[in-house]
């Protein structure tokens, strides 16, 4: 039948129905929106019953849709269309019984059913949060970033057009002056001024192992893995401080603060003092004195005091006075 066809454009589907009499039932041809084929059906008794449902298929069975849609029923009078009913719905749709809309109105033989899909989400069978199939704000930026990071990873891993050699404590690595310069003002100065690094296109980072330096490069190229960051974070902290890489320094501080315990608190306190990490320092002092963990490190504290900076010892003593101040 000619009027079983549903016209679609973008997320809008429109079904024009002619010569529909009481007691009739009609089902549309399938129409595609998103990843599913859909059907509309109408049945007229006392009410006009409108149904929207996905076509039975492997896709709809494995990924049943949650549809957010606007449904309109319109009566046509020659060149005029009068809105009869309007509704916004959000439903998980699997079968023709999941959404049945009774329209309490007297319809003539010609009318139009409009469905505008505001969103379509995939409902995971094993639970979890439904996710939209439509692009959202930031999607293109995310895709672009991912593509760029893949390119940077190739540049580093395959040595594409490298122009600087880095000498570490136990090996050499290749990198790109532009990437290093954009990441660090210290590196930028090396290549901008008439320093030996500019003339020889080499950098000596002999206070880092090759693995730690590779972790540093992976961070600068945006490809570092969490396990590598975790493993080399103390070395990365030193490099971030030396080469003025502020974001990396902040990330290292946050990470070191996350797992302070009795076995590392004095070492972390020393690192915090050395690199002027106020948040980490405060966290260590709070751990030691506010939580009383100073007793857990009493065997190590004497050796710590022999090596600690005098000003740090003064701060620790002031913390003792604050915590143990008589009421």
From TrEMBL:
Residues 162-221 form the BTB domain. InterPro entries: AtSIBP1-like, BTB/POZ_dom, SKP1/BTB/POZ_sf. Keywords: Membrane, Transmembrane, Transmembrane helix. Pathway: Protein modification; protein ubiquitination. The keyword Heme does not apply. It comes from the Eukaryota. The chain crosses the membrane at residues 66-88. PROSITE patterns: BTB. This is BTB domain-containing protein. It comes from Rubroshorea leprosula. The lineage of its organism: Eukaryota, Viridiplantae, Streptophyta, Embryophyta, Tracheophyta.
